[in-house]
Amino acid sequence: MRVLGVDPGLTRCGVGVVEGVAGRPLTMRGVGVVRTPVDAELGLRLVAIEQGIERWLDEHEPEFVAVERVFSQHNVRTVMGTAQASAVAMLCAARRGIPVALHTPSEVKAAVTGNGRADKAQVGAMVTRLLRLDAPPKPADAADALALAICHIWRAPAQNRIQRAVAQNRLQQAAALHASKLASKGRTA
Amino acid sequence: MRVLGVDPGLTRCGVGVVEGVAGRPLTMRGVGVVRTPVDAELGLRLVAIEQGIERWLDEHEPEFVAVERVFSQHNVRTVMGTAQASAVAMLCAARRGIPVALHTPSEVKAAVTGNGRADKAQVGAMVTRLLRLDAPPKPADAADALALAICHIWRAPAQNRIQRAVAQNRLQQAAALHASKLASKGRTA
To answer: Where does Mg(2+) 2 bind (chains A, B) (predicted)?
Structure first.
């Protein structure tokens, strides 16, 4: 199973690809960060994130995309950007028929370290060990993306198989439903 | 000037196209709602919104897209969906090189009714009058989308001209910058 993990953000969007199955050693296929300039217009930043995610999907052809679930208890301004970046990542995956899974930060920490409130250093150390890397991936967003992918591989493998089997079918149904609704709702003066 | 207004939402995304210039009567070119099923997966809902917005851009070829600026003082769950739907609308516009403007709800209400705290009925009544319609557009999301477009036409026409002139140029710059950054940041195992 090959999974692209995405730690969404407007300024730094962590991405990491992990391959393997639960119960066996995992392999890192790639890790990086999609960055956008802080002073660019929001629409253009979203376009840059889309282009970045598309490249990772093209290059690694993941079977699943795991995205961090966004909460809003954090800083309001940051959360909006995170929600928007995550929307672009989910959109890129879903329109290719790749199933998207959302995992909360505490689910990811618990999966990788055994502690849902582990700090960044601990997550980085476990990612390094589990993927047999020479050093923790930097920045933290990149390590978090790999942790997301590991978490996804380890959680509910049976559910993953079912989800993948129906994802293509659902995509076609949703498109057909949308087309028929749009035809009946839209009117032009 | 032809403007597509978008009142973003996951369940109902209001869209409306208005043509005209400040100081002259305005004309509605189209109004509608892009809907997505509440029980569908989030990724597929975003794909459906993308397809809907793309159709409106194809059909009406707006010179500007005006999107409601999302705040987070409202219901947390709703705000996340609104932020994600708005990201898709901004992405669709920006990757075509169409400038995107964000207006707050109170800016829109003030522009259309003279009162930044006007209620939905008042906004609907003024949209009906300003666009010389037979009845207020329904649902309220559709009327709000038209109000956004009107607001954009009336605010800062000079700024609009400048923004349009540089939008294409910026899009190319952002893509080039992104490509060079990605090349230097990403590494593959």
So the answer is: 68
| Cβ–Cβ contact A100 with B under 8 A | yes
Q: Is A171–B59 a contact, with Cβ atoms under 8 angstroms apart?
A: no
A7 assigned binding-site residue = yes
- The torsion angles phi and psi of B78, rounded to 5 degrees, stand at -65, -40
Integer Cα distance of B112 and B93 in angstroms: 24
Nearest-angstrom CA–CA distance, B81 and B48:
14
Q: Rounded distance, CA A150 to CA A134, Å?
A: 18
For residues B32 and B142, the answer to whether their CB atoms sit within 8 Å is yes
Q: How far apart are CA B85 and CA A174, in angstroms?
A: 16
pLDDT exceeds 50 at position B189: no
Which residues of A have a catalytic role annotated? 7, 68, 141
Helix axes A76-94 and B76-94, enclosed angle (nearest 10): 60
Domains, in order of start, for chain A: 2-185 (3.30.420.10)
Q: What is the pLDDT of residues A112-142, one digit of tens each?
A: 999 999 999 999 999 999 999 999 999 999 9
Pick from B29, B37, B88: CB nearest A87:
B88
Cβ neighbours of B181 (radius 10 Å): 17
